[in-house]
Amino acid sequence: MKPSYAIATPSYAGDIERCRLLCASIDRFVTGHAMHYLLVEDKDVALFKPLAGPRRQVIAESALLPSWLKPRPDPLALGRRRIWTGFRALRRGIPPLRGWHVQQLRKFALPLVSGEDVILFADSDMLFLRPFDVTYLGEDQAVRLYVKPAGITAAMTEHVAWCEMAARLLGLPRPTMPSPDYINNLVSWRRDNVRALLTRIEQISGRDWVSAIASQRQFSEYMIYGYFVERVLGLEAAGHTPDGFELCKVYWGGDAGGLASLRSFEDVLDEGQVAVGVQSFIGQPVERLKALFEAQ
């Protein structure tokens, strides 16, 4: 039987307009999925609720993560930012977390409550620009997993730390460099693998999986999943096939200046690419992205 598919997007109030654009692009271009999940903080549920529909569901963080991990205003930022902490979290040895930490935890938690076999993660600062059937990810039952062989070198200090943390969590030997890289946009996971992954983390750490992961603070959800399915299960047994092609064209920083001169995103998409991601921190106005989207 062919696997069922879902799309998942962790987001927050500051990205609502970008997320609205992502949803419009999914509705226009994407097929083959049973549901699109928006994973948001409880206080943002009402803001995102208008985006819900027959194939889009807004899930509150409280339905995914334990009650002892609570968001609150960051006193060091005069309340302009949020941190996830509290007495019970600190007692568990969990340092204050930022939003990007908690968005990763939501990704791990979703397969514990959702029913689809495969989840494709689409961040709220990206949008689809060409027709895309998500069932393409699972030809012959083996689901595509983004893997860039030797993509992480010893010089990439932060990435090396993520690799080492993933290995510790999974009870694996310290990894040598270069390491495969599993970090990308439009990464697909299998639900049963995530459940097995979290069970392994709990068995090795002797703690609940949220505490085990969050206590490290420096982690990458994609590296943890990639190490598990390739080094613990084996890709074939995990039901994955490796693929280093980037389905999404991503703008991270200085190269985004070229967006101002584009007539449409077709000018920059490579053959086979179906989406573009423009990181929200590089300051491109949503109105410009919307104009380029509407020019498709």
Automatic annotation (TrEMBL):
Species: Bosea vaviloviae
Database matches in InterPro entries: DUF6492
Protein name according to UniProt: Nucleotide-diphospho-sugar transferase domain-containing protein
